Amino acid sequence: MQAQRVAQSAFSMPLSSPAYPRGPYRFIDREFLIITYRTDPALLREIIPEPLEPAGDTVKFEFIRMPDSTGFGDYTESGQVVPITYKGQPGTYQIAMFLDDEAPLAGGREIWGFPKKLAKPRLRVESDTLLGTLDYGSVRIATGTMGYKHVVLDTEQVRKGLLAPNYLLKIIPDVDCSARICELVTYSLEDVSVKGAWTGPAALELHAHALAPVSQLPVREVVSCVHIVSDLTLGLGTVVHDYLK
Q1: Taking the chain, what is the end-to-end CA distance rounded to the nearest angstrom?
Q2: What predicted TM-score, i.e. pTM, was given to this entire model?
């Protein structure tokens, strides 16, 4: 293969069979269980990179079921998201994400810089309870529960909440293991349609793990929860800060 053809056709690895297609990426019937809790604000300040600032002492633990996603297929994801401010404007910062599908794992890390690791998250209904679980290997590291559809929420208010900008720290090493890319990236959800939204009583348990330290931000108090069913497009990213310049 000629060098010019390599340059023209290169998108993601491997060259001859990329792990995922080019975007945009549309999600149908994407289902969220988001449990917001209070934690130690000093620990939050240690984790959030400048120029972002924690917006308080809360963390959102998410379980997300994605049965129909363009190019990525059918998978489930879980992780921790922190409300932050950037230049005085509200947004969120992704600390850690865990999922069970190769294509979105590779695509998420390589395109945007999503902090994704391979694990086994689940979101399902058990009798009268919406249950989210996260296993790293054979070890249960998170369990979230919510009373199933106890209270209906205003879908337009929920939709507006999903439109806030999100921030990621994209890190890609060079071949000598020095940093080749270290950037703060922002992205937004687009064309969002909320089909239903509910709240109810909720609980969250986090457990220690050496390689999946979700419990490093301990649960002090559950503040709120929301269950959402939506259609949306995952927008592509924009670099807002380069740490290597």
Answers
A1: 35
A2: 0.95
The answer to whether 120 and 101 are in contact (CB under 8 A) is no
Backbone angles phi, psi at 207, to 5 degrees: -125, 150
Q: How confident is the model at residue 5 (pLDDT cuts 50, 70, 90)?
A: confident
3-state secondary structure of 52: coil
195 classed as catalytic: no
Of 111, 105, 197, residue with least CA distance to 146? 197
Catalytic residue among 60, 87, 116, 170: 116
Task: At 44, list the tokens.
Answer: 């939050």
Question: How many whole angstroms separate alpha carbon 88 and alpha carbon 78?
Answer: 28
How confident is the model over 12-45, as pLDDT tens digits? 999 989 999 998 999 999 999 999 999 999 999 9
Q: Per the structure block, which two tokens stand in for 122?
A: 């689940």
